[in-house]
Amino acid sequence: MRNMMIAAALAAGTASIAAPATAQVLNDGLINVTVSDVSILNDSLNKNQIAALDNVAVPIVVQVPVALAANVCGTTVAVLSAAGSGGACNATTSNKTFGQAVVRQALKQKAAKTK
Fold first, then answer.
1. What's the rounded mean pLDDT across residues 39-43?
2. Considering the entire predicted model, what is its pTM?
């Protein structure tokens, strides 16, 4: 009986240690995506949005849902969710949803710096 209680306590302790690490990596399901080359956004944005990004310093780092990050970074959700990934990747392609997120967050960051 005593061995069973010790095993149960150890199992509960291990579970409580492992759970927070996963939550920290995903940042509530958001992944930091770095855009080093804004030209990948050209087909995803209109001319006004592209012009608005002209004066934004690169690299641009935005937070997007893990599925979107996997899509634009050319990887999988599983890889981005793994503890060793750090919850970040570099964008290699774009789509309209990602382009909108970049414009919205980059302009918000730019406005915060000018205040």
1. 93
2. 0.72
